[in-house]
Specification:
It contains 32 helices and 28 strands. It starts with 9 loop residues before the first helix and ends with a helix. It is an alpha+beta fold.
Length: 899
């Protein structure tokens, strides 16, 4: 089979099949209502290839494991281990190797669930389809569809290719996964203008969507990767996953460490050799400096801190697929969110019923959920309201669940039944009282449906519901207190204006009408009596408004990017505070480029897009370009989504956020984070946790670096002064792996500082450690160095200890000073006693553990021998205690003076 088959595009031969008539479709595809012949099918299968999406290779377990070593700091550790083995320092070398493997294992097991969005897309095609070939209807694998095939669809079917409809009987489809449209879409057969956007191509069916109602026949126009779903698949492949800010910052830190390490090592080694010192000794000293400069515990602590954050977020209904994404959340500056189900409850609800003489409010709770003018309304005594609800109940094909909320069928019809149930009007009882004898199904052309329900042996009540405009046109009267009164043009216009006003607020409007007939075969849509309007909405989630307010306080912009209509999007945006006023920029998808990247637009257009808070009727490509535009301007972007159409943008965004309850498998596996409760407020909680995690990471890196700088200074100054080395290479490694790591780990899993959501998000280019923190590292490194060299001097010159015993004193001073130094990690404006460090129980556990390990290293003979430690006497311990407390004292003084 031709490998290029799937790249042969039918769309390129026939642009815009929605613009063609039935006859033109048949001519262009050389087919007919009887379908193509079997021999023609074989030829076209060779030409176009199978109707499947390209299958991508799964990321192997081995590749996931190898990815854990792609870090500059890990590279530094590998080089240090290699030098240790080269110098025959076997213990040092293996100790570093163990560090590398521990870090790799933690990251590997945490990130084992790799993103496999292409496999999820591929599985969507594994269904059967009914086709007519050679005049005979047969069922074939969806993969065997070719352009020109005649496909037969009906309610419940999955659409398996892009199709042009040629016959339609009450056909509706659910295209929410592809276009973002929250309601079923009515389909028809007439040709359309070429400029019609994807969501409004009512004569097309698209691969990956589903038929919710009715039946029809259609011609296959594109298959495989040339379908809209296939093009999205290609977009996902093109969307390269961006390196997260944390990864970028750690790499920058690693490169800095490489430079500093090489500079110090070469300087000390060369200066020592020039001064006449033994070459091997100076090389060994250089290795000791390299070991001292590299924070071996950094990868382990960072990984564990992120994993702890991942666990916390999981408890808060946010599952993280990518470990480093935990921290990225904290830097988020823009949240691009869809509307349905994230900001709203994804549940149509009747909010108001407009009758000729009153407006009735419908609430979701209370014994009497109906009210007018602030007064509760007893539905038993309101004839017009009961008539309206009875029409909504009888002219309905949905069904409510008996024991729980919700039902099956059209969401709008479910909402109408739910409103009736609040008035104690049950469908079963009502249908027994007024049995249905005929139904005129909803017609997309006239936008109405009707049922005949028997009143007595010779008369029937015709119940009609539909779009307000068409219903009002066929009404000649209006029901007022149970009586029919004339409906003149003036009152008709008033109702039309009311409908337009409410629709502009994003409400879905339904009109109700009724009449009595003796003939069951009559036209239902004439001489009707108008009953009233029903307003429905998909209400905002109750917790979203506060969450958006928190976002604003935290300097985070919330931008609505939806496939829904502009009026609906604006209404929800205003009610939630996304749109502050009418001057807020709102952009329709038709106003955005489809063939040109937004980043290539003139500056004025670019600026207008950047300022917009609402985007309606947006295509998958436009979502992708929008994110790229934000990223181009230095923003960290979070993008929410639930449909197939969201997958490319979810992958491209710095943080892709998928819905766990209603989201497609494609969206969930393309995302970095999955919300198990589909709640926007969960995103805000996750961002808060992300900020806490970054603060913790910054704190423990600050701690580790100040400890490691002190080790470099201690070794460097001692070697340049020609004195005894205060600490040996293996002792440095012991500190970096034990007494440094446990306090750092405790800092990494703390609860963090309060008020993290009252600050603006970090800039993407902001380093982990800024200038003031590097100055702090230098200050603490110098103070600790002076304490260690001072203890060495005291041990040698005042206590007259031999060098190997004096080294023990300086080693224990350095270890203890680093332990007490953890208390210097509180913020400058925090209380001396009541602060995040002292309240962290892990700090006290880490200190207790590290003191125990130090005592074991001193008093367990085997450990003491390996580390070349001699147990000190009382004077030695007093020296260690006093000298190690000096950095803590100076650190607290620095916080008081704040320098």
């Amino acid at each position: 089979m031709n490998n290029k088959a799937t790249n042969t595009t039918c769309t390129s031969q026939i642009p815009g099949p929605w613009t063609l008539t039935e006859e033109e479709i048949f001519n262009k595809f050389k087919t007919s209502k009887g379908g193509i012949t079997y021999s023609e099918f074989q030829k076209r299968l060779q030409t176009y290839g199978p109707n499947q999406l390209k299958k991508h290779k799964e990321e192997s377990i081995l590749s996931i494991f190898i990815d854990q070593f792609k870090s500059v700091i890990i590279l530094l550790l590998v080089i240090a281990a290699a030098f240790a083995f080269w110098l025959n320092e076997i213990i040092d070398g293996w100790a570093i190797v163990v560090v590398i493997l521990i870090n790799a294992c933690i990251g590997f097991f945490t990130e084992l669930r790799a993103v496999r969005s292409m496999e999820a897309l591929f599985k969507m095609g594994k269904v059967k389809t009914r086709v007519r070939r050679g005049g005979t209807i047969t069922e074939v694998d969806a993969e065997d569809l070719v352009p020109g095939d005649i496909v037969i669809v009906e309610g419940g079917d999955i659409v398996t290719a892009d199709l042009r409809i040629i016959e339609s009987s009450k056909l509706q489809t659910d295209e929410s996964a592809l276009t973002g449209e929250s309601l079923p879409v009515e389909k028809q057969v007439a040709s359309l203008e070429a400029e019609v956007v994807l969501a409004e191509r009512s004569n097309m069916l698209y691969k990956g969507t589903s038929v919710t109602r009715g039946s029809g026949e259609a011609v296959v126009v594109t298959t495989g990767l040339e379908t809209e779903l296939g093009q999205i698949s290609s977009l996902v492949e093109e969307s390269k996953e961006e390196q997260t800010p944390l990864e970028q910052r750690l790499d920058k830190l690693g490169y800095r460490l490489i430079f500093i390490t090489l500079l110090i090592t070469v300087f000390v080694a060369i200066s020592g050799i020039v001064a006449g010192k033994e070459f091997y000794l100076m090389v060994e000293t250089g290795i000791a400096l390299a070991v001292a400069a590299i924070p071996e515990g950094l990868p382990i602590v960072a990984t564990i801190a992120l994993a702890k954050g991942l666990k916390i977020m999981a408890k808060k209904n946010a599952l993280i697929n990518r470990l480093s994404s935990v921290e990225t959340l904290g830097a988020t500056g823009i949240i691009c969110t869809d509307k349905t189900g994230t900001l709203t409850e994804n549940k149509m609800t009747v909010t108001n019923i407009y009758l000729p003489q009153k407006e009735i409010m419908v609430s979701g709770s209370g014994e009497i959920p109906f009210s007018t003018d602030g007064q509760q309304l007893n539905t038993e005594n309101d004839e017009d309201l009961r008539l309206a609800l009875e029409i909504a109940t009888l002219c309905n094909n949905a069904a409510l669940f008996e024991q729980e909320d919700g039902g099956t069928g059209d969401p709008l019809e479910i909402a109408l039944l739910d409103a009736s149930r609040k008035a104690k009007i049950e469908f079963k009882k009502l249908s027994r009282k007024y049995p249905e004898v005929r139904e005129e199904a909803f017609d997309a052309d006239i936008k109405m449906m009707a049922t005949w329900n028997q009143l007595d042996k010779s008369s029937y009540r015709v119940n009609v519901k539909g779009a307000p405009g068409p219903v009002l046109k066929v009404c000649t009267s209006i029901m007022v207190n149970g009586d029919r009164q004339p409906l003149d043009d003036h009152h008709r216009k008033n109702w039309e204006q009311l409908n337009e006003k409410l629709a502009s607020q994003g409400l879905r409007m339904i009109a109700l009408a009724v009449k009595t007939e003796n003939d069951i075969n009559g036209n239902p849509y004439e001489n009707l009596a108008f009953v009233g309007l029903v307003a429905l909405s998909d209400p905002p989630r109750p917790d979203v408004k506060d969450a958006i307010k928190k976002c604003k306080e935290a300097g985070i912009r919330v931008v609505m990017v939806t496939g829904d209509q502009m009026a609906t999007a604006q209404y929800i945006a205003k009610s939630l505070g996304i749109q502050d006023d009418d001057q807020t920029t709102v952009i329709h998808g038709s106003d955005l480029p489809n063939n040109k990247k937004m980043g290539d637009l003139p500056l004025n257009d670019e600026d207008r897009i950047l300022k917009a808070s609402i985007f309606a009727r947006i295509s998958p490509r436009q979502k992708l370009d929008l994110i790229e535009l934000y990223q181009k301007h230095g923003q960290i972007v979070a993008m929410t989504g639930d449909g197939v159409n969201d997958a490319p943008a979810l992958k491209k965004a710095d943080i892709g956020i998928a819905m766990g309850q209603r989201g497609t498998q494609v969206a969930r596996e393309a995302a970095d984070m999955v919300l198990t409760d589909d709640a926007f407020s969960t995103i805000v909680k996750a961002i808060e946790q992300g900020r806490i995690i970054f603060g913790n990471i910054r704190r423990f890196i600050y701690y580790l670096m100040s400890c490691n700088v002190s080790e470099v200074m201690v070794v460097g100054l001692a070697s340049m002064l020609g004195t005894t080395l205060p600490i040996l290479p293996l002792q440095i490694l012991f500190l970096n792996l034990v007494t440094d790591v446990f306090p750092a780990l405790a800092l990494g899993v703390g609860e963090g500082e309060e008020g993290v959501m009252r600050h603006a998000p970090r800039r993407p280019d902001h380093p982990i450690l800024d200038y003031s923190q590097w100055m702090g590292i230098a200050f603490y490194g110098l103070i600790i160095t002076m304490s260690v060299l001072g203890s060495l001097f005291i041990a040698l010159d005042y206590l007259h200890m031999p060098p190997h015993e004096a080294i023990t004193i300086s080693f224990l001073t350095l270890a203890s000073a680093q332990l007490w130094h953890v208390f210097n990690m509180r913020s400058n404006d925090s209380h001396f006693i009541d602060n995040t460090i002292n309240r962290n129980p892990y700090i006290w556990i880490a200190l207790f553990l590290c003191v125990g390990l130090l005592l074991m290293a001193v008093y367990i003979p085997e450990m003491a021998r390996v580390l070349q430690i001699v147990p000190p006497d009382l004077n030695g311990w007093i020296t260690v205690l006093v000298m190690s407390l000096l950095p803590f004292a100076f650190g607290q003084l620095r916080k008081i003076l704040i320098f």
